[in-house]
Write a structure and sequence with these properties.
There is one protein chain. Helix content is about 80%, strand content about 0%. It has 14 helices and 2 strands. By secondary structure, the protein is mainly alpha-helical.
């Protein structure tokens, strides 16, 4: 019997549920801690450079481990790597409960980067590997939908927990979710999931060079290097900007993030299925990038909206909340970012996995995807944080938007200058 094309049907597959559980735990932790970072920045009175270092610390360790990690996953037992990543995240939550200064935050962020990298590369690779033939875009899209749903829950529930109960109780909840995901992996996921490459066939460096010889991979790497500068800057600085410029509370910051996360939670599985049926996944990547740049460019409109419009009070069930024009503007901007990611992500991930399979190295391809992100993840927040300190938040956000636009241009130019027969664009993904 043919597999149903309804994305929700994948939730009846116990192995997919186990893998999705790792995405749920990872994404919820990531989104909740981003809100916590805004509270730490406010409490410690940090500068933009210090705030950028919190992102850089998260990314630097990933830049060093992703390539050997990808090769280790290709040649080893991916299930054990998933369990290790989940265990590291539990340690992170315990450590965050005891931070007392910006340096402590930086050190714990380094460890968090290690755990997140293991879960992201291993989980997405295994999903791509065990996906049904011809349905990889849908599998990866729904996998991302689960992560986005978790981020949405993390934004709202995490923001509420931080607001109502503080750091220790919030981190305890994150630890419980991670332990539940660990049990799912132990019980439901097969041992040695996915394919294993020959460990002696090639080294990690040889694999990297071979992947960069693939035209589509080369174009995607160039794109992601530029794109990451803009995206990582908006991810770290938007919640801080909302808190420090407009006094937005933790729960409201979560609600701002929630618009984009809700869009990704609703759309990615369906867009992933659309890429499977339509093909030409590179067009989805390009359109998503341009839309993302437009969303970032909306953020500097927040102070203008705050001056031009009146706040609106909404209520129900005995509660009332005043929505300021700034919050409404930031929410709308993040909603656009969520739609943009829904268009881009399933296509990008499917292209990396399918091209990596040509060299029997899908996890190494996902590692290369991650490496290309680290350049901007390390340099972007620091440079944009410096711009924020010297020229102000508006210039910083417009700079981030310019990097996104440049990434789209880089993708078009690099792809146009490399031969790419149609056959290479029609893998069974």
């Amino acid at each position: 019997m043919a597999e149903s094309r309804n994305p929700v049907s994948l939730l009846r597959n116990t192995e997919f549920v186990a893998l999705a559980g790792t995405a749920f735990a990872r994404a919820q932790a990531y989104s909740t801690i981003l809100i916590a970072l805004a509270l730490y920045a406010d409490a410690f009175g940090t500068t933009g450079v210090v705030e950028g270092l919190w992102v850089t610390g998260f990314a630097v360790v990933q830049a060093f481990i992703v390539l050997p990690l990808g090769r280790a996953v290709d040649t080893g037992n991916a299930k054990r790597w998933l369990l290790a990543g989940l265990a590291i995240n539990v340690v992170v939550f315990v450590a965050f409960a005891f931070v007392s200064n910006p340096v402590d935050v930086l050190l714990v962020r380094v460890v968090q980067g290690l755990g997140a990298s293991i879960l992201w590369i291993t989980g997405s690779t295994v999903v791509g590997e065990i996906a049904t033939t011809g349905a990889r875009g849908r599998w990866l899209g729904v996998y991302n939908q689960v992560g986005a749903t978790s981020s949405f829950v993390g934004d709202l529930l995490g923001g509420y927990l931080l607001y109502a109960y503080g750091f220790p109780h919030t981190y305890a909840v994150l630890a419980l979710v991670t332990v539940a995901a660990t049990v799912l992996v132990l019980v439901a996921l097969r041992d040695d999931p996915g394919g294993q490459a020959d460990e002696e066939e090639r080294t990690g460096l040889e694999t990297l060079v071979g992947l960069l010889d693939v035209p589509m991979v080369r174009a995607l790497v160039a794109f992601r290097t530029a794109f990451s500068v803009g995206k990582m800057s908006i991810i770290i600085f938007l919640p801080i900007y909302a808190r420090t410029e407009f006094g937005v509370g933790a729960f409201a910051i979560g609600a701002i993030h929630g618009g984009g996360k809700l869009a990704k939670a609703l759309l990615q599985g369906y867009v992933g299925d659309l890429t499977d049926r339509v093909g030409k996944k590179h067009y989805f990547v390009l359109v998503g990038a341009l839309l993302y740049g437009a969303g970032i460019a909306m953020v500097p409109l927040a102070p203008h909206a705050q001056r031009a419009f009146d706040a609106v009070t909404v209520g129900g069930l005995g509660y009332a909340y005043t929505v300021t024009p700034a919050v409404a503007t930031l929410f709308t901007a993040y909603l656009v970012l969520g739609v943009a990611d829904s268009v881009r992500l399933p296509a990008s991930m499917a292209l990396f996995v399918s091209e990596g399979e040509r060299l029997d190295s899908p996890a190494s391809a996902m590692s290369l995807r991650s490496i290309s992100w680290k350049v901007g993840q390390v340099a972007g927040p620091l440079s944009v944080g410096l711009i924020k300190d010297v020229f102000g938040a508006t210039t910083a956000f417009l700079t981030a938007a310019a990097f996104i636009a440049a990434s789209a241009g880089v993708f078009v130019v690099v792809r146009a200058r490399t031969p790419m027969p149609d056959a290479r664009l029609q893998p069974g993904d």
